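#structure-requests
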Amino acid sequence: MNHKKFMQIALQLAQSGKGLTFPNPSVGAVLVRVHCHDTHIIASARTANAGRPHAETLCLQKTDNIDALCVLYVTLEPCAHQGETPPCVDAIIASHIKHVVIGVEDGDEKTRGKGAEALKKAGITVEYENLDGAINEFYKGYLRQRAGEKPFVAVKIAASLDGKIALHNGNSKWITGKLAREYGHLLRAHADCVLTGAGTILADNPRLNIRLNGFKTYQTMRVILTGARVLPDDANIFNADDGDVMIVADKNSVHFANYQRIANNAPQKMMVQEVGAQNEKINLPLLLQKLGQFGIADILLEAGSKLMTEFLTQNLVDRIYYFQNQQFLGADSQNAIGVLGLDKLSDAPQFHLHAEKQFLRDDDMVDKLLILDRVS
């Protein structure tokens, strides 16, 4: 039986929910009935928006035609603990399924290995199919976060051929075309949070929301690092229609009380996260640790060169989405990355090419996207 074929379908289902199921990971489930040479899908589902119900439960609820001839494909090990919903393994066992194929073991210590073991004890055959590492790649941030490591940090940069993000006067509309910008919005949708700095808020006054069809009722949380800056009450990022906001500030800052006031008066969910600072700079490793504890596994950093440079110099960037147009803007334009203070080429942050995409513009030019992963 072709396990890869059906697990690939389950993965595609999980991918369709990426970013929409926080605080739970997006899981895909496919139920297949095997009878002689007749193999067909009888039900499928992914984790519901906001994380519940889980994919396995939704999939099993879609059909009454379940028996020992059925095989369940699920991208992540079914949960074995009682949370806000009963364990998924209980529903699987009660359904009389006798064969389950799992994409990857859950990273959550409450379930890791326990879900598969419970299924085996119930007489269910358990196999694994991770699609040559594709399943692990999809859950990379989640597995790291559940293991107590820092969340997966991806950086989005839109720049010219000579690495400039804006002209000397700050004009940057638009470095890239419509299709590339829409892909950038999709990256926001796939992240658990969009991280930016106060400098970007003050310079560009962005909303950092998702402006794509199908996402009007869902917005990724925005996280703002304030440092020593003070944000105006009417900043666009505080728009009530654009979802939750977390303001990260030093509790000893003179502006901390003001941020608490903004959060308390906000019509949407807004919170102030206390993180220590040194020389008016937020402690970034501590920030990532706290965001991980909050349940955030995948972060998209959209910021100016100063904050980008801080993340690079502290070796905190895992992936770069580098959108590049076909123009040179010149030495008097603003750099994507600031001073790294390198004396040797071997000390430079190194990234390898993971994938490449191209986007045709209305002016017949082409924007290139380089997806670069950090060399560990």
